[in-house]
User: Fold these one by one.
Assistant:
Number 1:
Amino acid sequence: MINVAVLGYGTVGSGVVEVIGRNQEQIVRNTGEEVYVKYILDLRDFPGDPYEDRVVHDFNLILEDTSVSVVCETMGGVGAAYQFTKQALAAGKSVCTSNKELVARHGTELLALAAGKHCNYMFEASVGGGIPILRTIQTSLTAERIVAVTGILNGTTNYILSRMETEKADYHEVLKQAQELGYAERNPEADVEGHDACRKTAILAAMATGKTVDCDMIHTEGITGITLADFEFASEKNRTIKLLASVKVQEDGKLLAMVAPFLLPMGHPLATVGDVFNAVLITGNMLGDTLYYGRGAGKLPTASAVAADVIDCARNQGRTVMGCWSEEKAQMADTSETESRFYVRTDASAAEAVEKAFCGKYDPEVSEGTLIGGEYGFFTPVMREKDFNDICRKLGDAVSGRIRLM
Amino acid sequence: MINVAVLGYGTVGSGVVEVIGRNQEQIVRNTGEEVYVKYILDLRDFPGDPYEDRVVHDFNLILEDTSVSVVCETMGGVGAAYQFTKQALAAGKSVCTSNKELVARHGTELLALAAGKHCNYMFEASVGGGIPILRTIQTSLTAERIVAVTGILNGTTNYILSRMETEKADYHEVLKQAQELGYAERNPEADVEGHDACRKTAILAAMATGKTVDCDMIHTEGITGITLADFEFASEKNRTIKLLASVKVQEDGKLLAMVAPFLLPMGHPLATVGDVFNAVLITGNMLGDTLYYGRGAGKLPTASAVAADVIDCARNQGRTVMGCWSEEKAQMADTSETESRFYVRTDASAAEAVEKAFCGKYDPEVSEGTLIGGEYGFFTPVMREKDFNDICRKLGDAVSGRIRLM
């Protein structure tokens, strides 16, 4: 029997307990033995809950119980969660988590700690929720040189963008809707500014390269500046707008990583990924593109991924299987030196001057300029980010919107 | 160092050697040691080939070399491939293969043999080519009760159907094209009659249930009866036609498995999977739907999947990791007792009688009957397969086409 402790009996934690309870038959078949939730750590009591008798308030109880071999950290945050994870791993207990913030910030240290104690630190649920993407990279794409990872990693922003497109509703209206439905937090900043996607991108990039990737080094833009006019322009060009994580391993081995909205053609495999769904497209040098799609969040899908980690830990006791990445830092490419095409939106009255500043002489074949209400949108030629930004700076407020093309 | 022998230096075999050669750096990182192709078994010689010196003609050389721990069976067929696989496993050497015919026919025996010798029989490449689907079921969807698997598993037929749809070309014309491009065999029967998809379905169904699934028990239909009129009707109803593998685990635990063309709505996740691509949609009781998409065939994608198996074997020497399924046979549901809706095509002159036979009184809300050239297509109500077949039998030649609705 594998004894498990669950830290935090909130949405994900209670989901883990539920999945282990309801799918015990499958779990026993896949583990080879029973998986038993022995402790649930929470500050609160849960009178009447079927697992009431497992609830404890003192982490040391768990730490000192040598019969507990796997700990699920479903508390979130980087305070107590970090301390408890370190203590559990130091005691040789494997830890499974959905806590992307902690993994992105301290993953390298925690992985090394686990390896030193011949146990595992696993975090499948931290990226793509229920989509099995990290273990796929770690155990299935092992004969590949991964050259690119492109993904929709944040369900909240994908929901907002999808609704803006289909309902022709503006950003603030849809955000309010999303908050009412529980798809967005009261303070939505982590989602809409791209920080959540950035943490997941750092984890994916580290998995793909085997090196440490610092999320502060990832250029991150959110979706707050996107307007209905942008969607109108996109639609006219048979494109859509998605917040994408984009990771590319350059020929020189440097990593180009970015979270930003992109205008992508409707034929792109990620274009039709709607609402709260997530998807990750991985490009390998032998395999070409493979795509993984599913629910990026939600209690049971996320809990299922944590439970799969528990089973993997149970199957691999005394043996570190997820090396994931080393302490060596990935060399990051300079975003400003890369080349892109951009869509630019400006007031109709400034259209000629702005278009000229980016495109030089007027060439409708390149710019595909289009009036959208009182505004004007067009495509720049392929240009260095640095040069693009210099022109933006000179033009100041005249540039009211800008999105990269995929 | 892991010494590997490759049996059969054809398309996939030479691909495996190429992948191991070109991605040695990634492979060493993921394996922890070098993977070296020590032997290539083939009846032919390959003068001038960079691996010329590894080519041998006698399997016993490989069998008796105790330094060889992994064998890649990329010969195909169920004759010598079966004998060599048994001998290799009996000698404690792990075997990795893309040979779906052998896995579907003798997988249960070979898995048990491997388990008895503490080695592995792995066959990721046998289903979905480069898409990592079997290991995902085996190691990531472990906390799920898989309730359904739906997939496009044959690239040749998907190519033919896609081209019929987009080019409005008829079946025989597109088949000829596919043969010229090398996407279809000179004798296309195994693909177009659904036999190839059926073998893959048996493997997927066995993985999903943990039990043996006999491919002869899977109801299988091909695509040879599909006409342009069917696509015309489908398009009018905002649907498309795909050859699907459909596996459902019923509430009573019985397995409903089928390979057949289906009319599916354009919004279905598999509707936009075009050309030679494959995709598999797995429905779990906690996760909901997850989708896996990529190249279902081709030298390097298939070889990459075989090489990933080699790496997994190397990481797990002396330890059977892929239990996959037991000798217990899955209980199959009786297809004729299940319920479906069907699309039926008939000659316009027989339309009224045929529609009446299936639909009883005329109800355009249900039948959505439509003239397509000199023919007539309509939808039946939901009915038992048995009843549907009885009516078809009575009507004889008057029913010129029939496809299930998804």
Number 2:
Amino acid sequence: MELIEITTYFKNLQQEICHQLEIEDKSGKFQFDSWKREAGGGGVTAVLSKGRILEKAGVAFSHIHGPMPNRIATRLHQPEGAFFHATGTSLVIHPQHPFVPVIHMNLRYFEVETGTAWFGGGIDLTPCYIDPAQAQWFHQQLKSACDTGGAELYPLFKKACDEYFFLPHRNETRGVGGIFFDFLKPGDLFSSYTDIFTWIQNIGNSFNPIYTALIQQNQDKLFTPKEKEFQCLRRGRYVEFNLLYDKGTAFGLDTGGRTESILMSLPPEVHWQYQFIPEPDSPEALTLSRLQPMNWLEFKA
Amino acid sequence: MELIEITTYFKNLQQEICHQLEIEDKSGKFQFDSWKREAGGGGVTAVLSKGRILEKAGVAFSHIHGPMPNRIATRLHQPEGAFFHATGTSLVIHPQHPFVPVIHMNLRYFEVETGTAWFGGGIDLTPCYIDPAQAQWFHQQLKSACDTGGAELYPLFKKACDEYFFLPHRNETRGVGGIFFDFLKPGDLFSSYTDIFTWIQNIGNSFNPIYTALIQQNQDKLFTPKEKEFQCLRRGRYVEFNLLYDKGTAFGLDTGGRTESILMSLPPEVHWQYQFIPEPDSPEALTLSRLQPMNWLEFKA
């Protein structure tokens, strides 16, 4: 497995996802910005704004390299200045329609000249209103993709996702979870880097069919201004998570990453209302009650 | 100087500020919520929403006490479990009018049974569009209030404010600064706690005349949808600062404070736009160019 195969895959994945999203949106077009990193490497950030379905969609590819900055070396327990490569695809999609869920995916590969290398990433879903049948279907799709690498992967990575995407100050999960993994190397779970890379591609390739289905199932539903307002409040929680807790955001900003590419994850319009309390038994109250780690595969209505 | 004098002052200050803001707003009314802290003490959070001038104004009083939680003790270099009192008034005002500036004030007092005690706080201004004459006038008022405790205070606390309210990932100050101070005890700057408390009251009492004037000077100006949009984007920077960098926010959430009271500082409506770049020489570009530490007292147009 060569680095160029990985960067090529991540770059192609960005293209394929942008292409598919434009087909579904039928109106918006991605704007592609190339950027270079002074110390080595760069990336392409693609953003679609004010589409028919997608209010703001960001799909980023990057491949940076060079001597490892001190702060990264410390966090990763690597020698300062060791030559490294980091490459990946990440995306966050904020639909304008409150019934089309927000989705986030990140797949990444890190390699250091000391000989160590690993994959990381995940996919998770943040519906504004939780539809349990759709949450279940989403987890079934992730389980199928995970199982191509072994049946033990989905339960491990599902649990890690619930733990990571949690807002302690709200006592809420960010959404209905998904999968999350990091530092994947040959070992107990995979026998070789080639196996991991094959599996990573299965995860990446699951994105388009999953999200296309979620768009198509929800895009024609009618919605009210009240539901749009609830979407803007739920987006506030998304911002709180990304700025208060997300390690990728803090890491990126802290190490001098490209601010506009890192913060492309923030929603286009967000509301904060003091002490929003939904009416008892309303759809809003029901959704908030379900923002807890749930075994969606076993969920029965 | 007794603790009860301090808590009484902070509580009265909250009342006086809410009263004055209602007079200026002419439409909105504050909603007062009392809350109790399980381990001791509590507070009153006052929020005015959707007023004529004030889109969201939060003015909080609190007085909490009890054995010091471990995380607070570690941060403050105090023995774990030592009995403490913390009291203060804090406010953030988000006007609906893009030419009325956002203002923030915090005044606080901390006392530990080990015998140590200190005051902290500050006032700072975040105009959406910077009017240099108003920024200068604001700093003149703060200097006058500061000078009641000695001419050396304003320069020290002005510098500390510029350093604190800075967004490194944007290379921008949050606004036009103000004053910021912490751990004020008798020593080089003040000879007694009574002197510090007298000075703190001069700072707190400066709030109503300063902000009333800023409302009255700006509230009748005409504004365009473009200017309102710029306000929503500038509010995004405010959110970024508060969630990424503000120590009070992190400290409050981290130590189990009341989430709704802590996050009352977040604006009611916020926009994020990928790569917003203002037209050259526009008022928006001019404002962004002035988001740097500036000697406003000496500013010449």
